[in-house]
From TrEMBL:
The protein's name: Beta-glucosidase
Lineage of source species: Bacteria, Pseudomonadati, Bacteroidota, Sphingobacteriia, Sphingobacteriales
Residues in Glycoamylase-like domain copies: 341-554
Species of the source: Pedobacter chitinilyticus
Domain SbsA Ig-like: start-end pairs: 70-146
Keywords from the named record: Signal
Annotated signal peptide: none
Length: 571
C-alpha cells in the first residue's frame, strides 16, 4: 500500500503541484526518505522506482558516511541495515567480497531483525595491509521480490596481522641475517662491468659514486662477517678502483651518477653534469676505509692501497673553494659554478670538510671549515625538542641521514670540536626522531615505539626527505636501523617489528624495502644504495666499530681532523 500511495501521490500531486508549495515539497521528500530500499512490484515485474534512498551500513560498529575504511582487523564485520526484510537466497550473488586481484573471498552472512539486518564477515582472515572491495549489487532482493535501487561498493583495508611471520632467532643472529641479506645489494646486484653500486634496483647501468662508497664499506663488512672471502672482496674492490681510474673526473671529483659500462658522467639534473664534491667524499671515505683494511704485504693488496691513495690525492678539494672560504658542492664543464651551492652545516656533509682538510695534496685551512661549514657558529641550535636538547642543526633535527652518512667512517664517540660534542649530537638527533614518532602528533597509523624512523626515502609517487617537520606518514627502515649505535634499544625494537611483524611485506631479496606507509597501506618495491648501505655499515659499527676503527686509523684523517680542532680518543 505504501508503494501504491507514493506512486499515486507522485502522479496526481507532485507533477502538478511540486513547485507551488514548500510544504508539499518537504512532505514528499520525507515520504521518500522512509521508503524501503527496494523497488515495488507491479504486475509481477521488478521495475524499480526512481527513488534516491541510501544504503545504511557500519564497519566494525563505525558508520561515518565513508566508503573507505582502513586499519581494520583481519575479520571485520560489516552490518547492513535494510528497511525491508531481504531474501537470503539472493545474497550469495549480490553481496561479494573481492581482493585486489578481483578474486572472490568467501564470506559468512548472518541475519538479525527478521532478515532486515545482514552481518557480513570473511570466512578466513584477510591478508594484512591489503585492500578489498565489498559490493552489494542490484541483484539483492527483498522478501517480497523488490530489487535494491542503490548498490554500493565499500573499500576495506586490513591492518596489522600481529603474528610472527618468521621464526624467532637470537638478537645476534637477527643482526647478522639483516647484514647478510642487505649485503646482497652490493654483491649480487653490483654492476657487472664496474663493480659499482647501482643507484637503485631499477637503475640499469646507472651507478652512484656516493652509494658505491657505502658499497665498498659493505664489502669490508662482508669479509669481516665471512659472507665472502678476503680474496673475493679484494678482487671486487680492485675492480671498482680500476673503473674509477678511467671514469670521468672533474678536477679530481666524480659525478653523482656514472655510466657503469663506460665511466661517462650522467647528469643528475640539468646543470649537475660534472663534479659532485659531496658524493666524491662519500666515495673516498669508503675507499680509504678499504685501504686501511687491506693492509697485507701481497702485491695485490699493495697495488690496491697505492691506487686508492692516488685517487684520493687527485681530488682538488681546494679548487672547489671557488676562490672563497667555503667548499662548493658542484662544478660543471658546461655551466661552471652556476649551481652556486655552498656546502654549509649542519647537514650530512661534515665528511667533505674532513677529507678536504686531510688531503696531503689539495688541503683546505681551518678557516674554510669555520667560515664555510660552521658559519662561524651559526650552525648551532641548542633548543630542546621532545625533551631532548639538540646541539646543532635545524628544528627537530631533520632527516636521520644527516647523522649517519658522515659517521659511517667518522667515529662520533668522544668526538668534539669548538661547535659540538658529536656523540651527544647524533644521539640527540636520533632520540628526537624516535620521540616524535612515539608522540605521533599527526596520528599516522602504525607510528610508535616499535615503528619509527624518518629520513630521505621513496614515498608514494615520489621521493622526499622525511622528518618531524616534513612528515608524510612514511617510515624508512634505514632510519632506525642505521641509528643502532645511537639508540640500540629503540632500534632493536624497530628491527623486530619490521622483521617479525611486518615480515615479507618489508623483507625481500636485498633486505628491507626502502620505505612503507601504513595509513593507506603502501610498500615500496625499491631498494636504494644510499639507504641499504647505512644499514649494514652502522649495524657493524654498533657491533664491532669495524668501519669506525679503520677510517679513523688513516694517518691523513688523524692529521686533518686535528687541524680542524677535533679532539677524540680515537685520533
Amino acid at each position: 500500500m505504501l508503494c501504491l500511495f507514493l506512486k499515486s501521490f507522485h502522479k496526481t500531486f507532485v507533477v502538478n503541484h511540486l513547485r507551488t508549495s514548500p510544504f508539499i515539497h518537504q512532505f514528499f521528500c520525507l515520504c521518500l526518505g522512509i521508503t524501503v530500499l527496494f523497488s515495488c512490484k507491479k504486475n509481477n515485474s521488478n521495475q524499480p522506482i526512481n527513488t534516491d534512498t541510501s544504503l545504511h551500513f557500519s564497519v566494525n560498529g563505525v558508520s561515518n558516511g565513508s566508503l573507505k575504511y582502513t586499519n581494520l582487523p583481519l575479520k571485520p564485520v560489516v552490518k547492513f541495515t535494510f528497511t525491508e526484510a531481504i531474501n537470503p537466497a539472493t545474497v550469495t550473488s549480490s553481496i561479494l567480497l573481492k581482493d585486489a586481484s578481483g578474486t572472490t573471498v568467501p564470506v559468512f552472512v548472518t541475519y538479525e531483525g527478521n532478515n532486515k539486518i545482514a552481518n557480513v564477515t570473511p570466512q578466513n582472515n584477510l591478508s594484512s595491509f591489503s585492500s578489498y572491495e565489498l559490493a552489494v549489487n542490484d541483484q539483492l532482493k527483498s522478501a517480497g521480490g523488490g530489487r535494491l535501487i542503490n548498490p554500493v561498493i565499500i573499500t576495506l583495508i586490513s591492518g596489522l596481522d600481529d603474528t610472527d611471520k618468521f621464526p624467532r632467532i637470537s638478537d645476534d643472529e637477527l643482526l647478522t641475517l639483516v647484514q647478510k641479506q642487505t649485503f646482497k645489494y652490493f654483491w649480487d646486484f653490483a654492476h657487472p662491468v664496474s663493480g659499482m653500486a647501482r643507484e637503485r634496483n631499477t637503475s640499469g647501468n646507472t651507478v652512484t659514486s656516493g652509494g658505491s662508497g657505502f658499497g665498498v664499506m659493505a664489502l669490508v663488512t662482508g669479509i669481516h662477517r665471512n659472507f665472502i672471502s678476503r680474496a673475493d672482496g679484494l678482487a671486487r674492490t680492485q675492480q671498482i678502483v680500476n673503473f674509477l681510474k678511467t671514469a670521468d673526473r672533474f678536477h679530481g671529483a666524480y659525478s653523482h651518477w656514472i655510466d657503469g659500462n663506460t665511466g661517462k658522467a650522467i647528469a643528475f639534473s640539468a646543470k649537475d653534469n660534472g663534479g659532485d664534491l659531496v658524493e666524491t667524499s662519500l666515495l673516498m671515505a669508503g675507499l680509504l676505509t678499504a685501504r686501511q683494511y687491506f693492509d697485507g704485504t701481497s702485491a695485490a693488496e699493495t697495488n690496491l692501497k697505492n691506487d686508492i691513495t692516488t685517487l684520493y690525492n687527485q681530488v682538488e678539494w681546494d679548487w672547489y673553494r671557488n676562490g672563497t672560504n667555503s667548499l662548493f658542492w658542484h662544478w660543471s664543464p658546461n655551466y661552471n659554478w652556476d649551481m652556486n651551492l655552498k656546502i654549509q652545516g649542519w647537514n650530512e656533509c661534515l665528511i667533505t670538510y674532513v677529507l678536504a682538510a686531510s688531503s696531503p695534496t689539495h688541503s683546505i685551512p681551518k678557516n674554510v671549515y669555520d667560515e664555510g661549514w660552521a658559519r662561524n657558529g651559526a650552525m648551532k641550535n641548542g633548543s630542546t625538542y621532545y625533551g631532548v636538547q639538540l646541539p646543532l642543526g635545524n628544528a627537530n633535527g631533520g632527516p636521520l641521514f644527516l647523522s649517519q652518512y658522515s659517521f659511517l667512517g667518522i667515529n662520533p664517540n668522544g668526538l668534539s670540536d669548538a661547535y659540538a660534542n658529536y656523540e651527544t649530537q647524533n644521539k640527540a638527533h636520533a632520540m628526537i626522531n624516535y620521540n616524535y614518532c612515539v608522540a605521533n602528533p599527526v596520528k599516522h597509523n602504525g607510528y610508535g615505539a616499535n615503528c619509527w624512523g624518518l629520513t630521505a626515502s621513496d614515498i608514494p609517487n615520489g621521493y622526499t626527505a622525511s622528518s618531524p617537520t616534513n612528515d608524510r606518514g612514511v617510515i624508512a627502515p634505514t632510519a632506525a636501523l642505521a641509528s643502532f649505535p645511537y639508540t640500540p634499544t629503540q632500534s632493536m625494537a624497530a628491527l623486530k617489528f619490521f622483521y617479525y611483524k611486518l615480515g615479507d611485506k618489508l623483507w625481500k631479496e636485498y633486505g628491507f624495502i626502502d620505505a612503507f606507509n601504513l595509513n593507506d597501506p603502501w610498500f615500496a618495491s625499491s631498494f636504494l644504495a644510499i639507504d641499504q648501505g647505512p644499514i649494514i655499515i652502522m649495524i657493524e659499527n654498533y657491533r664491532s666499530k669495524l668501519l669506525w676503527n679503520l677510517f679513523m686509523s688513516a694517518p691523513e684523517i688523524k692529521t686533518g681532523m686535528k687541524t680542524l680542532g677535533f679532539s677524540s680518543p680515537n685520533l
